[in-house]
Amino acid sequence: MAASNQPARVVVIGGGLAGLASTMKLAELGATVDLISLTPVKRSHSVCAQGGINSCNDQTRQLGDAEWNHLDDTVYGGDFLNHQPPVKEMAMWAPKVIELMDRLGVPFNRTEEGFIDRRRFGGTLFKRTAFAGATTGQQLLYALDEQVRRCESEGSVRKFEFWDFLGPIQDETGRCRGAVAQNLTTMEIRAFPADAVVVATGGCGLIYGRSTMSVFCTGSAASRCFQAGAKYGNAEFIQVHPTAIPGADKLRLMSESARGEGGRVWVPRKAHDPREPKQIPDSERYYFLEERYPEYGNLVPRDIATREIFDICVNEGLSVESDRMCVYLDLTHIPRHELDRKLGGILEIYEKFQGVDPRDEPMKIFPAVHYSMGGLWADYVKSADGGLEAGAPRNHMTNIEGLYAMGECDYHYHGANRLGANSLLSCIFTGLFTGSSIVNYAASQTSGADDVPESLLASAVQAQQERHDHLLHGNKDSDENPYLIHQELGDLMTRVATVVRKNDQLSEAMGKIDELHERAMRVNLADTGAWTNQNVVFAKALQDMFPVAKALLKGALQRDECRGAHFKPDFIKPPLTSEDPTERRRQAEAWCDAFQANNEKYLKSTIATWNAETNQPDLTYEDVDTSLIPPRPRLYGLVGAEAIEEVWNERAAATAADDDTNRYADSH
Amino acid sequence: MTAPETSIKNRPQFINVRVLRQDEPGAKSYWELHKIKYEREMNVISVLQRIAAQATTVDGKKVTPVAWDCGCLEEVCGSCTMVINGRVRQSCSALVDRLLADNPDEIVLEPMTKFPVVRDLMVDRARLFRSLKRIQGWVPVDSYYNLGPGERIPREDQERNYPLSQCMSCGCCLDACPQYQKIELTQNEGESDEEFEQRQNAEFDEAFIGAAAISQAMLFNNHPTGKALAAERLEALSGPGGITTCGNAQNCVAVCPKEIPLTRSIARTGRATTLHAIKKWFER
């Protein structure tokens, strides 16, 4: 048993920030860890994160900031779909996380005096973001990679790199007793018994074909848990990053830090103005974010920036180029040496891939799929102070006992829209925080990794072997090609489920995706070999994209509202139109009534469970814990915001007074 | 830098791609010619994606997709290193228009030369990661508990360390190095995976460590806590396969995609190991 004398044995799937943070913390707490990753962990997708990592800090505190404000910005930016206790705990930990990463040697940019430098990111008015050039994710990942290498040489961690997680092993009670994985070189399928399994496998951007994500981000690992019975939350919430460089194989991220350091987004006022951008005088440039959002300017939350860029190109027809949609992101007014010091990494990417120096010429950018706010449902235990109960075994456990989810593939932290520089934080925080929960869970079990019946392991391997063999030899007469189906899937998802969503398109797409799914199950592979067969590995990942894609489409179809990244123009809450004070007041009242009614219906987590009989997800809705900060209208830039805010504040004050009266009555 | 579009006048309809393939370790390698449709803004990754999808050579012969390694596709993960038109580099940042401007006839893809081929363009770079253990490439902190901030670090130290810390373990510097020789062992009959790994590591630890790890040692030796292991790192770099094996060809710095000042790190290591040796002599 794991309980008394044996150290806990944990299998961690995924070696990005969340998986590595989890691994090293578990090792520190005495567990032994088998770390399974598709790629050498140093190459995980976290390397692509650019801009930084947020925390309240000594400077911002003196301007009125506190952890509470970080929580508030995060849930307001997330349109209140975030679970507040975990977000609160994360905000409280944030300064400590950055201090730890600093001790681990992350080369954060420094002020002249040698303190960690900070910059401002979207969705906040404070400079909370610590950064290491424009490759912060890479630098944080390397620090954790180094520590895990250290654990490995001390013997507490074994790495299985170039291994593909195929599914959890569950006993007759449904409890997770380990994982099945496949060696991508020898194609050997093996069982890894464990006291607990951690899934930290990131996002699912490849469902969209091209996105800002790495090729590993197929979402297949999460999907395999989903298909094994794990619940999946908020699948429809996909962040489309406002600024990416279009490319044939990938849409490369252009970090929000470019705007954080003063980058300005604009288009020529005259459509497809043929002049070079530098020849266009200021008066003929439309700085549409600054004009439309005077307070936040270029640093509005990502969902808003994305929609505005989309709107400028699609509805206003003001794209810089006539045959391709893009807007300018301009840094040319900032001194070169400052750009090199703070943004060097991302400017080099632009220069290398576009052949243009962004220090001399404005960049051309367009939105791209970037992050999955949704993911595997996981539990948590709320503490008396409204955060999380440290060490509680249920923290981050999915509904499959013993199976944990963290990092981008969980669903709690970012609600309907993630704020920039919060993802690195949520990954490292969840990895560190859950260490004691997992160790405590393992210790509470009477039957552990060593007691898993051999027959259970063998049958789990057998099932995966059958799937593998069927893919190699089962569809000899079919001419379905996994790469081409993937392109079709990506085109479909990009068309109907990114920036703007419409019910007729979504319904139609659900029919098409059923057909694509069936075709994907019949792929005939060009490679049927038993050595480094990337063809069959990709085919499996492709098949497993469909359950998540279906949950995404169905979740989007059923959510008739606009919330964060999920935008349906047919259900938009209109701005106030009247100039007459009385009428305007009445409109504001009506607006707030509608807002409240909508929240009652839709301020819920979408929870998908996979139905293997129908090959479809079943959806239910769960309440969101908004006990710390009551939901309020998200009014960035809306016409009539002041009037709505006034009505809303009066109502909030009245509710608070009522609560006080009730409490007074209760106590007597 | 000029825009890639302007450097190529007549866009071809098709691109010829010659790939050096190998079915498994130890097998004989062979050339295969593929022809794919030209598209705007292609890189070698998208070329290989098209090849995988069509899985047919120029002669119409059905073949398996070419195996290769890739990850981020924006030159920060280090996965996709290969030899392209004779030069070791990342395939994601190898833009087709540029390659065609240099050689309009074909694009030639080969696996790295200093690492054992797993299959086609996939190689086994375990030795590269092993070298990071050899120099104890980490900061030996007490624990992962919250113990307050680290030491204050002057801006010039950060600016010296940050470039070194961008090393993505791609292996370009090793492939281009005349002193770095390929080590390819095969697992013996009856030898367990663990035993094989041990034997392999022993071999790696005697051979030239290469520029990447030398530079990492300098990175950690220049960190306030990292330098607690400075003597151990210098010791590792003083032994066989250490700094004295470097022949100063300077190929490493020429091919590094991140333009890391590798030769500067090597020079610093040379001085530091000399001082280390003198210190040791006095302490005898």
TrEMBL record, chain A:
GO terms for cellular component: plasma membrane. Residues 486-636 form the Fumarate reductase/succinate dehydrogenase flavoprotein-like C-terminal domain. InterPro entries: FAD-dep_OxRdtase_2_FAD-bd (IPR003953), FAD/NAD-bd_sf (IPR036188), FRD_SDH_FAD_BS (IPR003952), Fum_R/Succ_DH_flav-like_C_sf (IPR037099), Fum_Rdtase/Succ_DH_flav-like_C (IPR015939), SdhA/FrdA/AprA (IPR030664), Succ_DH/Fum_Rdt_flav_su (IPR011280), Succ_DH/fumarate_Rdtase_cat_sf (IPR027477). Its EC number is 1.3.5.1. It is a peripheral membrane protein. The active site is at R302. The keyword Signal does not apply. Its cofactor is FAD. It is found in: Cell inner membrane. It catalyses: a quinone + succinate = fumarate + a quinol. Residues 10-424 form the FAD-dependent oxidoreductase 2 FAD-binding domain. The keyword Flavoprotein applies. Keywords: Cell membrane, Electron transport, FAD, Flavoprotein, Membrane, Oxidoreductase, Transport. Pfam families: FAD_binding_2, Succ_DH_flav_C. GO terms for molecular function: electron transfer activity; flavin adenine dinucleotide binding; succinate dehydrogenase (quinone) activity. GO terms for biological process: anaerobic respiration. Belongs to the FAD-dependent oxidoreductase 2 family. FRD/SDH subfamily. NCBIfam families: PRK08641.1, sdhA_Bsu. This is succinate dehydrogenase. It comes from Allorhodopirellula solitaria. The lineage of its organism: Bacteria, Pseudomonadati, Planctomycetota, Planctomycetia, Pirellulales.
From TrEMBL, chain B:
One of its GO terms (biological process) is aerobic respiration. It holds the Pfam family Fer2_3. Keywords: Iron, Iron-sulfur, Metal-binding. GO terms for molecular function: electron transfer activity; iron-sulfur cluster binding; metal ion binding. Coiled coil: none annotated. Its cofactor is [3Fe-4S] cluster; [2Fe-2S] cluster. Residues 156-188 form the 4Fe-4S ferredoxin-type domain. NCBIfam families: PRK08640.1. Belongs to the succinate dehydrogenase/fumarate reductase iron-sulfur protein family. This is Fumarate reductase iron-sulfur subunit. It comes from Allorhodopirellula solitaria.
